[in-house]
Specification:
Number of helices: 14
Number of strands: 12
Radius of gyration: 22 Å
Shape: globular
Distance between the termini: 49 Å
Strand order of the largest sheet: 2-3-4-1-5
Order of helices and strands: HEHEHEHEHEHHHHHHHEEHHEEEEE
Length: 393
């Protein structure tokens, strides 16, 4: 048996073990939105821990496919093209490659595989969408980009309660669907607080008690393992700066950072600080919310939030910032075009040209079209409960 044949046999055994032990019994509803048959070439991205691997494993029964992770140490010395070529020679109809950025020169190999095997399925997955898009480059238009967002509040409830709940359009609420949700006997406000504590990623099903530790692990792995692939030549000081950004944003009542102070405090040039913030945005650690027409490459935007709202609960952060962070996250992940308001006295955000204000139950309208309110159970007039934003998908 050749070395490649041995490696393929090992990978097949690993695949079967993962399908047996790592495929969750409960699957998030978003899996139904991803069309496996839409293209023979797919780029799947999304934050760590959102179910990308689980979705790939769930698609293996649709053909004779080989799943493997590019960070598997046994294949580190084998060129990606050679490994996949050997798999195709054994009759595999396609390859599902996880953690693709760990493979050396992966983009060159994926391009060659795409061109050399026009009848084979190629599914590559990574936590950084920008790494996938820029890596595949000139053939990216031939690959279908799919994104796995954070778990929605609706999905969390469905996984936790095993009830089927309808989706809702936040700014065009269907009363029949709303009535169905309100009659579900779910304590929505209580469960929404639980969701923001341990429910934004499906691994809460494994252990709610260990959710905090897993979030910390994701945070550290993203900073120490993912970002260096986007920005080579990082040093320990750069990593510390990014950790400090996370800690500062979690506590701050004003969701932004002072570039000058960061630059001085960590002895890092302003341009490098901007690059680090951009990388943190690309790998789903933070969300940079810009004003309309802010296309500046070196921009910290108008507001910066932690990407995952549960991080604010993890760090016992500011409740007002958490509310805005969740509202922006839910709207963006639901497909809305979201910008920071040009006039804070009028509203907080503009979503699809609708002026949005976010706050507590007694928040005033100001000049907004809609007020998103925490601790509000039922919508009325132009007042929308914060939890309802989690029912778009």
């Amino acid at each position: 048996m050749t070395i490649l044949a041995e490696k393929l046999d090992q990978l097949k055994q690993t695949q079967e073990a993962k399908v047996l032990y790592d495929t969750p019994k409960k699957k998030r509803d978003y899996f139904n939105k991803l069309n496996f048959d839409c293209s023979r070439a797919i780029l799947l991205s999304g934050p760590r821990g959102t179910g990308k691997t689980s979705w790939m494993l769930s698609q293996l029964n649709k053909g004779f496919f080989l799943y493997f992770s590019a960070d598997h140490p046994s294949i580190a010395a084998i060129p990606l093209y050679d490994l996949c070529d050997a798999a195709f020679s054994k009759g595999y109809e396609g390859v599902f490659i996880d953690e693709i950025h760990y493979a050396k020169d992966w983009s060159i190999h994926v391009k060659s595989l795409y061109d050399s095997f026009p009848k084979k399925k190629i599914l590559v997955c990574d936590s950084s969408s920008i790494a996938l898009r820029t890596g595949v480059g000139d053939i990216s238009r031939r690959f279908v980009n799919m994104n796995m967002p954070l778990l929605s509040f609706r999905e969390y409830l469905m996984l936790n309660s095993e009830q089927t709940l309808p989706t809702l359009k936040v700014f065009d609420i269907d009363k029949t669907s709303l009535t169905s949700i309100l009659n579900s006997k779910i304590n929505l406000l209580k469960e929404f607080n639980n969701y923001l504590t341990y429910g934004t990623r499906p691994f809460f099903l494994e252990s709610k008690e260990n959710y905090r530790d897993k979030l910390f692990n994701i945070l550290h792995k993203t900073i120490e393992s993912d970002i260096p692939f986007l920005l080579p030549n990082l040093n320990t000081n750069h990593l510390r700066l990014m950790n400090s950004v996370i800690g500062f944003l979690a506590d701050s009542t004003v969701p932004t950072v002072n570039i000058e102070k960061m630059s001085t405090l960590w002895a890092v040039g302003r341009e490098k600080v901007y690059q680090l913030l951009d990388a943190m945005d690309k790998v789903h650690l933070i969300r940079i919310i810009r004003k309309v027409h802010d296309y500046n490459i070196y921009s910290k935007g108008e507001k910066i939030f932690l990407y995952d709202p549960a991080m604010y609960t993890l760090f016992k952060g500011n409740i007002g910032t958490l509310r805005e962070a969740y509202a922006s996250a839910a709207l963006i992940d639901s497909g809305y075009s979201l910008f920071s308001s040009k006039n804070e006295k009028e509203c907080d955000f503009v979503a699809n040209n609708k002026k949005i204000e976010v706050g507590g139950k007694n928040k005033s309208v100001k000049g907004a079209d809609y007020v998103i309110k925490d601790e509000l159970e039922i919508p009325y007039d132009n007042n929308i409960p914060l939890w309802l934003l989690g029912f778009e998908y």
